[in-house]
Amino acid sequence: MRKTDRFPVQGSNALWQLYQTIPFAKVFWNTVVILIARYLPFLSMKRWLYRTCLRMEIGEKTAVAFMVMLDLLYPEKIRIGKNTIIGYNTTILTHEYLIDEYRLGEVVIGDHVMIGANTTILPGVTIGDHAMVGAGSVVTKDVPPYALVAGNPARVVRERKLESKGI
């Protein structure tokens, strides 16, 4: 089950009330930083931007590939461990704006995780250490450590065993 906080709204749909819940200047700043980082070919500079300008937690040697789209509204709710790969054109969301409510949830991605290209990760999801997410997957619930998941919605394909190489 995803871990999200729910906030009901009255009147028009929640997205129409966006700037009553988050300042426009923050959204604008986040958008500029994320758009620059999406096209930046230097992994260390990209990590620096995320850490410094968006207050994200990103571990050492983590690679966020070209065109990865991070949540524009609450990127600070994304935590990525060390030595992890986030594949091309992946989307990581920490919010959902619905008709009668909006939801916020942290996304926690562990250490030594591999996320395939074109994956979507929904708010409130935790991906365990050493997990692998197949390309094109939609992650709608927590992924256990060492699991290989794939599909829409992502389902456990197999559980990997602890490697004898000290991983």
Automatic annotation (TrEMBL):
The chain crosses the membrane at residues 20-41. Signal peptide: none annotated. One of its GO terms (molecular function) is acyltransferase activity. The keyword Amino-acid biosynthesis does not apply. InterPro entries: Hexapep (IPR001451), Hexapep_transf_CS (IPR018357), Trans_hexapeptide_repeat (IPR050179), Trimer_LpxA-like_sf (IPR011004). PROSITE patterns: HEXAPEP_TRANSFERASES (PS00101). It comes from Laceyella putida. Keywords: Acyltransferase, Membrane, Repeat, Transferase, Transmembrane, Transmembrane helix. This is Acyltransferase. The keyword Ribonucleoprotein does not apply.
